[in-house]
Amino acid sequence: MNITLCSFGFKHGHPQADLVWDVRFLPNPFWTPALKAHTGLEEEVACYVLENESGARFLALLEPLLLFLLGEYAAQGRESVTLAVGCTGGKHRSVAVVEHLLAFLAQKGREAQVFHRDIDKE
To answer: Global pTM?
Structure first.
């Protein structure tokens, strides 16, 4: 199965996807001056977003759900699945989550392609 993970910013519109998750509830690095200019590709930003109570709980719920859904789609003969993860601007939180999911899927022996649609937008 071809898996595509896409990060995006809601303020730039929704992408076409099979599944869309809104992660605007996670801590927002935009409001932290030292992190604002950086992206979710950077470890410091990813840690800020994911290494807290909300981030840890979200990932603990999301990871098994994602594996379940991928298994169900595969059982139905789906050849591809696109998962879009959105935050406000598409630069911090959604990017960090997509990168985490990419690594998680790799640990499970699954390949995925990543597209950070809005990472360079203001």
So the answer is: 0.97
